[in-house]
Specification:
InterPro entries: BolA (IPR002634), BolA-like_sf (IPR036065), BolA/IbaG_stress_morph_reg (IPR050961). This is BolA family transcriptional regulator. It comes from Halomonas citrativorans. Belongs to the BolA/IbaG family. The protein has one domain (3-73): BolA-like (GMP Synthetase, Chain A, domain 3, 2-Layer Sandwich), CATH 3.30.300.90. A hairpin with a 2-residue loop joins strand 1 (17-24) and strand 2. The protein has a 3-stranded mixed beta sheet. It is α+β, with helices and mostly antiparallel strands. It is built from 4 helices and 3 strands.
Length: 83
């Protein structure tokens, strides 16, 4: 899979989030920013993203995924957002 394919899958399955994807093959790093994470524990946030990719993980199309999640407020001060 390509990063743009992973991004398209996530955008179609989780509303109101921006996704930043890096990686190749079946190993990807996902940064997700959105209001959907407001009030959720870190574990629940991870579960939300994993659930959106469960079919691809089960099929082996995606193997290793690193996920970081942020609300828009958190993202505005996150070191990952330093550009």
């Amino acid at each position: 899979m390509q990063p743009n394919e992973v991004k398209a899958l996530l955008e179609s399955r989780i509303d109101g989030c921006d996704f930043h994807i890096q990686g190749e093959g079946c190993n990807f790093q996902v940064i997700a920013v959105g209001d959907a994470f407001e009030g959720l524990s870190p574990v629940k946030r991870q579960q939300l993203v994993y659930a959106a990719l469960s079919d691809e993980i089960a099929s082996g199309a995606l193997h290793a995924i690193s996920i970081k999640t942020f609300t828009p407020t958190q993202w505005s001060t996150a070191s990952e957002n330093a550009q």
